[in-house]
Amino acid sequence: MKRLIVLLIFICSNLFQSALCQITKIVVKCDSVGSTFPVSAKLYFILKSKVLNKDAIFYPDYINPEPFFSKDFVNVEKGQTLILDSSALGYPSKLNQISKGIYLGQAILNINTVERSYSMAPKNTYSVPVLIDFSKDTVITVAIDHVIQKKTFEPTNFIKELSVPSKLLSDFYHSPTTVKAAIILPPSYWLQKDKYYPTVYVIPGYGGTHYDAVENSGTYVNNKNIEKIYVVLNPESFYGHHVFADSENNGPRATSLITEIIPFIEDTYRALKDGRARFLEGHSSGGWSSLWLQINYPKVFGGAWAIAPDPVDFTSFDKVNLYGKNGNIFYDGSKARVLTRTPGDVKITYKELSDKEGVLGYGEQLGSFEAVFSTKGSNGRPEKLWNRQSGAINSEIFKNWQKYDISSVIVKNWPTLKDNLEGKLHIYVGSEDNFYLEDAVRVMKKKIDNLNTRFTLEILKGHDHFSIYEDKEVNERINNEIEQSIKQNK
Fold first, then answer.
1. What are the C-alpha distances in Å from 186 to residues 193, 196, 223, 341, 484?
2. Is the CA virtual torsion 431, 434, 439, 441 positive or negative?
3. Which one, 29, 181, 345, 402, has the greatest CB density within 10 A?
4. pLDDT in tens, 86-98
5. Is the pLDDT of residue 271 over 80?
6. Could you give the percent of the chain with pLDDT greater than 90?
7. Dihedral, CA of residue 363, residue 364, residue 370 and residue 375, to nearest 10
8. Backbone phi, then psi, for 422, in 5-degree steps?
């Protein structure tokens, strides 16, 4: 019997091995485009098996990522050859564990240390996609010989790009730093040159930037009874969405906005210099940002409208109670925690996303939370809240997170906040939010209700994280509420 078992194990092992590719390494020739050498960089190699065409890949699929790999290199010289082998980080498998078959492969070299997305950051370099036969090829050679160009902003008479120098951020980074935004002017702006306008500061969600204002400009000017200036802010940094909160890792983002950016806008354009005429609006991470700015600067803004904001109560951080003893991000007991629910009822666990981000590096969603909420570590990087292997939460690191718990901050400081914050918070979230964000709003509502406030916290049935943001009725309601606030304060 024992011999039979050993034989079966041997056969199964060989069948498994025969199903895997025999590749030993990927050789990437680094040409001189896009950078001044030497340079430190992260090399990515991304695969796609369903080859319908040879379009660039750039980024792995969010729901069902196929194998991709990364490795850090220091002081890369012009013309140097870079090697990816089984020692490279890989997800969902290592390089020597890929199933045999035909793949499309592409290499990207990330040299940009300012922007979040390696796949769009200017001056990053990449190879053209190449067909690879992982059933017989053992060494793959590609050449990085293309450069990502700077994204252009196409201004019009009513849409302008702002690039405002920030002394505060320049001092923090020890390098000249600007804050970018798009300003959308109302139809009468150039006709009524003595008229001043209320301003709505729009903060996009994770992955969104001020470039989105160009294609979405109609949303901000059509069917409005009261003309307003809209300013679409760019919330991106190297570590991801910085949510316009002052933090150890991202610097004085909120202070810069309040003391440098807003004054510049109001001095340059005819925006009313009155807190009752400044408003905040945001979605997802931008929704969290709008709430954070409103509660920290209650006199500066006349109200915040947050759609599907990131977790507003850390007792339900994507359904994880971060205050719990012996907490674990990956597991609820022995059960894997599901972080996202997507169309087709595909569920992604916290561990899967954490592992994926471990290969992608800094700038991803989970990592951006740590960049804002955590202290800076001895290596100059954000401290990790959870152990990347076990999922165990570090209670010492969490102590710094607690000062960013929005509902806790409101409850704790309500006696001093009440006079200037009452009635200014508006939160709308879908009952089927893809990231379970409605649960944190539900918890916050119970706490806030005890304060007898006039805040609006609503869970709208049937909406998910994205449909609520795109819903015409929700957007009209927000505009009407902003306009009602303007009328009341005239």
1. 12, 11, 12, 39, 18
2. negative
3. 181
4. 899 999 988 888 8
5. yes
6. 67
7. -10
8. -50, 125
